[in-house]
Amino acid sequence: MGCIVYGSHTSGDFKMSNTVLAQKLVDAVEEADSSTKLLEAVQNLAAAGLAETVPSLIAALGYNNPGAAVAAVDGLIQIGEPAVEPLLELIDNYNYAARAWAVRALAGIGDPRALNTLLDAAKNDFALSVRRAAARGLGTIEWHKLPKEEVGSAQNQSLEVLLLVCQDPEWVVRYSAVTGLEALFVAADESQSDLVSKIKLKLEEMEKIDEDLAVKGRVQLALSKVQESFALNKKFQDKSKDGDGADHRGDGRR
Questions:
Q1: How many CA atoms lie within 13 A of 94 on its CB side?
Q2: Mean per-residue pLDDT for 151-169?
Q3: Residue 176, exposed/middle/buried by CB under 10 A (0-12, 13-18, 19+)?
Q4: Domain CATH number, residue 131
Q5: Residue 2 pLDDT
Q6: Which range has highest mean pLDDT (1-10, 18-27, 168-177)?
Q7: What is the CATH number of the domain that holds 45?
Q8: Residue 58: closest CA among 37, 28, 89
Q9: Minimal CA–CA distance to 141: which of 170, 174, 114, 173?
Q10: Are 91 and 122 in contact (CB under 8 A)?
Q11: Is 114 found in the same domain as 80?
């Protein structure tokens, strides 16, 4: 495959070159006659990061080749927004395996258009790997892409589901729920005091009752970050009450 010399191309030529490259990569996937060649072809397709390849990467999610599916998910995450609507359309497909990979890709992209899909998958999917990916994804939604007035409600929806998923029977799913809670805590602003308090309380509860050592360790890591933030906020509040933060003990004494 020839190398594209970007510097000598106009924007139109560049777009055409990408289209030609995408078609060559897609053709290689379609012509692959072994699982090894298919894996290599999908990896090359994913590495290109071209929006034109989204349909073929999505098709690769349904192949009976887990390695190719993993590569396709990575490629879709790299492409980002252009892959979201096609992935959401796939969710309604009856091919469960492809649907599961699509949820993982949507979780990795973090686009808020996938929020309802991730909420449902985290709560209801029978595959622990899908619940795990969805729970992690709920904490890393790109909230700034939502209208400002919708952010609080969407974050509270995510919190409600993550609190539920913290009770999942599978430790890896609970672990991811803790990761999601920590990320949600970091994303919350000062108006979300109720949300951050609920996250802190849940982590403190899990630290006491969760029996899995890996989950407990992840809870302690998240809780240390949460408690540090609470301590800093209290410090700033105390300074604000005190005026300039100076020690005024003894003021007014003669």
A1: 0
A2: 96
A3: buried
A4: 1.25.10.10
A5: 39
A6: 168-177
A7: 1.25.10
A8: 89
A9: 114
A10: no
A11: no
HEC string of the chain equals: CCCCCHHHCCHHHHHHHHHHHHHHHHHHHHHCCCHHHHHHHHHHHHHHCCHHHHHHHHHHCCCCCHHHHHHHHHHHHHHCHHHHHHHHHHHCCCCHHHHHHHHHHHHHHCCHHHHHHHHHHHHHCCCHHHHHHHHHHHHCCCHHHCCHHHHHHHHHHHHHHHHHHCCCCCHHHHHHHHHHHHHHHHHCCCCCHHHHHHHHHHHHHHHHHCCCHHHHHHHHHHHHHHHHHHHHHHHHHHHHHHCCCCCCCCCCCC
The single residue listed with the structure tokens 């403190």 is: 204
179 and 156, same structural domain?
yes
Cα 224 from Cα 104, distance rounded (Å): 28
pTM of the entire structure? 0.79
Structure token pair of residue 247:
């020690």
Cα separation, 105 vs 95, in Å, equals 16
| Helix and strand totals (H; E) in the chain | 12, 0
Of the given ranges (26-30, 128-132, 247-251), which has the lowest mean pLDDT?
A: 247-251
What is d(CA 34, CA 228) in angstroms, rounded to the nearest whole number? 53
Q: In the block, which residue shows the tokens 């430790």?
A: 171
Give the pLDDT confidence score for residue 62 in this predicted structure.
86
Q: Residue range 31-60: average pLDDT?
A: 91
Name the domain count of the chain: 2
Tell me the pLDDT tens digit for each residue of 235-253: 445 555 555 544 444 444 3
**Residue 228 in tokens:** 């540090």
